[in-house]
Amino acid sequence: MKLVCLECLGNTFFCVLASRPTLLREQHYQYLKKGLRHLSDAYECLDASRPWLCFWILHSLELLEEPIPTNIASDVCHFLSRCQSPTGGFAGGPGQQAHLAPTYAAVNALCIIGTDEAYSIIDREKLLDFLWSVKQPDGSFVMHIGGEVDVRSAYCAASVASLTNIITSTLFEDTPGWILRCQNWEGGLSGEHMLDLKALLRWVVSRQMRLEGGFQGRCNKLVDGCYSFWQAGLLPLLHRAFSKEGQSALSEQRWMFEQQALQEYILLCCQNPSGGWWTSPATRDFYHTCYCLSGLSIAQHFGNLRSHHELILGKEDNRLAPTHPVYNMCPDKVAQALHHFLQLPVPKDKKPSSDADPSSASSPAPPQAERPDS
Ligand SMILES: [Zn+2]
User: Where is the composition biased (Pro residues) (predicted)?
Assistant: First the structure.
C-alpha cells in the first residue's frame, strides 16, 4: 500500500510524506556486518552480554533480508556453544554464569541461523534443568541463581522453552498468576483476576508521544527508539487477544497505534547517517539498531490469521521483513525452529524437590552488564 498525505496530497514542500524518508539500507548493512567481526572499545562494558550482540546483529540482518555468510554463521554457533553453561542455559560470555537474558538471546540467535549445527548446540535437557534452577515456588523466575525476580525473566523462560519444545506440565505452574499480580494501578486489574486488557491497551497507546511519534518506556520517560519494539510489539498481541474475545470493532488493516508516526520517528529522528540507530542520529549501538528495525517492521506490517497489510512510509525500498511479535525473529525462522524441535520429545521433567537445600542455590553471581540504554 502506498501512502498519500491526506493533508496536502503530497504537494506541500514541507510534507513529510512527500520528502520520502529513506532507510539507509547499505549503511546499516555495513555497520552490522562489521560488528560481527569487530567491536569498538565502547562494547567492553557488554562483556557479560555477548550473546545479545549476536542476536541484535543477526536479527537486524534478517529484517534487512541480508543473508548471513555460512562461515560467519558457523563461527557464531561455535562462540555461542562456548557460552553454554555445563549446567544448562547460556551465559553472557564463555566461563560466565548461566543467566536467562543471554539464554534468550543465544537461543534466538541460533534459531535465526536455523541450521542443524545451530539447533544441535542447544542442550535441551540441561536447558530444562537450568529453567528449574531459576524457577521460584510462587511461579516467578529469577534471572540467574541468586539473582533478582523480574517479569522479563518469565518472558525469557517462556520464549526459549516454547521455541525448543521443553515445556512440561509443571514448568510454568503458577507463572500466569504471578504475572497477573505484576499489573499495577496504571494498567488496572479486574476483580476476576484476569489481565485487564483494556487498561493495558490504554497504558501502552498512551506511551506513543504526540509530538515525536515514537514511544516512551513508561510515564515521564523520554521517547526512545528501542521502545519502538518493546511497546509497539505489544499491540499485535493485544489485537490477537481482543480478537479471541470476539471484539467486533477491531481493524483488519491497522494495529491500534499510529504506525505512520512511528515510522516517521524512526526514519527521520533516529538513523545515524553512517548506519545504525539510537535515540538520536548523533550516535548508535547494536541494541537500538535491532529494536528500531524491529519496531519499524511492526509498524510496516499488519497481519492476522486472515490478512496481511503493509503500510510502508517513503520508498518501497524501505520495506523490512516482518517480525514475530512474540519472539522477535522473522516468522519463517520461528516456524522452522518449531518444526525442528517439535519432532523431538519433551525432556523428562526433573522438578527439584521442595525440601532441597536452599543454600546450594545461592552461589554469588557475577554482575550482569547493563545494556547501553538502561
Ligand atoms: Zn533505548
Answer: 364-374
- For ligand 1, the distance from its centroid to the CA atom of residue 277, given in whole angstroms, is 10
Whose cell is 547493563? That residue is 370
Question: What DSSP state is assigned to residue 305?
Answer: S
- Residues within 5 A (CB) of ion ligand 1: 224, 226, 373
Residue corresponding to grid cell 520464549: 159
Cα separation, 374 vs 14, in Å, equals: 35
Strand partners, 120: none
- What is the C-alpha to C-alpha distance for residues 170 and 317, in angstroms, rounded to an integer? 47
Q: Give the Å distance between the CA of 217 and the centre of ligand 1.
A: 8
Q: Tell me, in angstroms, the distance from the centre of ligand 1 to residue 230's CA.
A: 10
Which residues have CB under 8 Å from 123's CB, separation 6+? Answer: 84, 88
pLDDT, one tens digit per residue, over 177-233 is 988 888 877 663 333 346 888 999 999 999 999 999 999 998 889 999 999 999 999
CA of 279 to the centre of ligand 1 (A): 7
Count of Cβ atoms closer than 10 Å to residue 366 Cβ: 14
Measured CA to CA in angstroms, residue 58 lies from 33, 45, 91, 354 at distances of 9, 20, 18, 40
Distance 291 CA to ligand 1 centre (A): 8
- Of the candidates 272, 283, 280, the one whose C-alpha atom is nearest the C-alpha of residue 40 is 283
Q: What is the Cα–Cα distance from 110 to 78, expressed in whole angstroms?
A: 10
Residue 355: pLDDT above 50? no
Average pLDDT over residues 13-36: 82
* Contact yes or no for 71/122 (Cβ under 8 A): no
Q: Can you tell me the distance from the alpha carbon of 169 to that of 171, in angstroms, rounded to the nearest whole number?
A: 6
Q: Contact, 154 vs 175, CB < 8 A?
A: yes
Report the candidate in 150, 122, 120, 111 with the shortest Cα–Cα distance to residue 134. Answer: 150
Place of cell 534487512: 64
Whole-angstrom distance, CA of residue 203 vs CA of residue 197: 10
